[in-house]
Design brief:
By secondary structure, this protein is α+β, with helices and mostly antiparallel strands. The chain is built from 14 helices and 10 strands. GO terms for molecular function: transferase activity.
C-alpha cells in the first residue's frame, strides 16, 4: 500500500480528513502522495505528476461560476491568476455537501507580497487596474449570474453587527474611542448618501471584493498573481480601490497626502462621495465582528491586533478624518 503523508490543520476532525483522502484516492485520476490543509476547505495536494490546490465550494453554482469566470478571464487577456485543472470527472467532486475543484498550484517566491513595501503596493494596484480593464468585457455576460455590489448596504449591515457586539468590545476599548468611531461611520454613510450614485454611476466591472495582501501572490518568477474570487460582484472600480486604500493606509501612517500619490486611487479623490467613504472604519468593524463571530477575540495575538488597530492607530486615524474634512471644504 502506498505511504501517504497527511498533514491537517483546522477544525475538521481526523475522521473527516481520512474520509476525504479516501474519497480523493478513488475519484482522481492521479495517485496522491501528500495532502495538507491550508485553511478551511482548502488543501494543497501533491500528486505523482503535479501539485494542485483542492478547494471546496458550498454549492455547484458557486463552483461552476468561479470555474467559468476564470476561464473567461484568461480568454479576455488577464493571465495573472490560476486555472482549474480538469482532474475531476464530468461533474465536480462532491464530498459531504461540499463541491471541490482542483486548482493550479502557483509556486511562490520566498519573498512574500506585502503592503508594508511601497513597491508591492504599487504593483498590487497596477494588477488590480489590469484586472478591471480586462474583465469589463465580461460584465454583460455575467449580469444576472454575479450579484451587484451595494457599498452603503454592506456598511450599514456591518455597522449593525458592530453595534450588537458592543457589550464585548467595551471590555477592551474605552467608550470615548468607540463613540467617535461611530460618529465617523455615521458621517461617512450620510455623506455617501448625500452624494447619491457615487458607487453606482460610471463604468461597471467585476469587482474582486477582497483585495487583502494574501490575495496577491508573488510567484517564483517574481510576477504578482491575483487569487481567490469568492467575493466577486458587479460594481464600479471605486469599491475595490476604496478597499485597497483602507488596506494600505495603516502603512502610510494614515496620510491623505501620501494616499494621493497612488494614481489609480487619486483619480477618485476629486469625488466627494469617495472622500466620505474613506472615513468609514470598515476594517475595525469587520475585524471585531469576525473575531466575535468566530470567538477568537480571547486569543492573545488576536486581541493584541484588534486593540492596536482600534486604539493604537486611533489618533492617526483621527487626524486623517480631519484631513478629509478640510479637503471637502476646499
Amino acid at each position: 500500500m502506498r505511504a501517504v503523508n497527511l498533514t491537517f490543520k483546522g477544525e475538521r476532525d481526523d475522521l473527516y480528513q481520512n474520509r476525504l483522502f479516501s474519497y480523493l484516492q478513488k475519484q482522481l485520476h492521479v495517485p496522491i502522495k501528500e495532502i495538507s490543509q491550508i485553511r478551511k476547505q482548502v488543501y494543497k495536494v501533491k500528486a505523482e505528476e503535479l501539485d494542485f490546490i483542492l478547494k471546496g465550494f458550498s454549492s455547484y453554482h458557486q463552483f461552476n461560476l468561479q470555474k467559468d469566470f476564470l476561464t473567461a478571464l484568461k480568454q479576455v487577456g488577464f493571465q495573472k491568476t490560476y486555472s482549474f485543472y480538469p482532474l475531476e470527472k464530468e461533474l465536480p467532486l462532491l464530498f459531504e455537501q461540499t463541491y471541490y475543484g482542483c486548482i493550479e498550484w502557483i509556486e511562490t517566491s520566498k519573498t512574500e507580497f506585502t503592503f508594508y513595501k511601497q513597491q508591492d503596493r504599487l504593483k498590487g494596484l497596477k494588477l488590480l487596474s489590469h484586472f478591471h480593464d480586462r474583465n469589463e468585457k465580461l460584465v454583460e455576460q455575467y449580469t444576472g449570474s454575479i450579484s451587484s455590489f451595494n457599498q452603503v448596504e454592506k456598511w450599514q449591515e456591518r455597522t449593525v453587527s458592530f453595534l450588537k457586539n458592543l457589550p464585548v468590545i467595551r471590555y477592551f476599548v474605552q467608550k470615548e474611542i468607540i463613540n467617535e468611531m461611530l460618529i465617523w461611520a455615521d458621517w461617512s454613510l450620510k455623506g455617501i448618501e448625500k452624494e447619491s450614485g457615487v458607487f453606482e454611476n460610471g463604468k461597471k466591472v467585476i469587482l474582486h471584493g477582497d483585495v487583502a495582501h494574501h490575495n496577491f501572490l508573488r510567484a517564483k518568477n517574481k510576477d504578482i498573481y491575483l487569487i481567490d474570487f469568492d467575493l466577486i460582484s458587479i460594481g464600479t472600480p471605486r469599491s475595490d480601490y476604496l478597499q485597497y486604500a483602507n488596506r494600505i493606509l495603516p502603512f502610510l501612517q494614515w496620510s491623505f497626502r501620501d494616499l494621493a500619490n497612488y494614481k489609480e486611487i487619486a483619480a477618485y479623490l476629486n469625488e466627494k462621495g469617495f472622500i466620505y467613504a474613506l472615513a468609514f472604519p470598515t476594517d475595525i468593524f469587520r475585524e471585531w465582528n469576525r473575531a466575535i463571530r468566530e470567538q477568537t477575540y480571547l486569543q492573545p495575538i488576536k486581541i493584541q491586533h484588534l486593540v492596536e488597530m482600534t486604539v493604537g492607530q486611533f489618533h492617526k486615524r483621527q487626524n486623517f478624518i480631519k484631513e478629509l474634512k478640510r479637503f471637502l471644504v476646499l
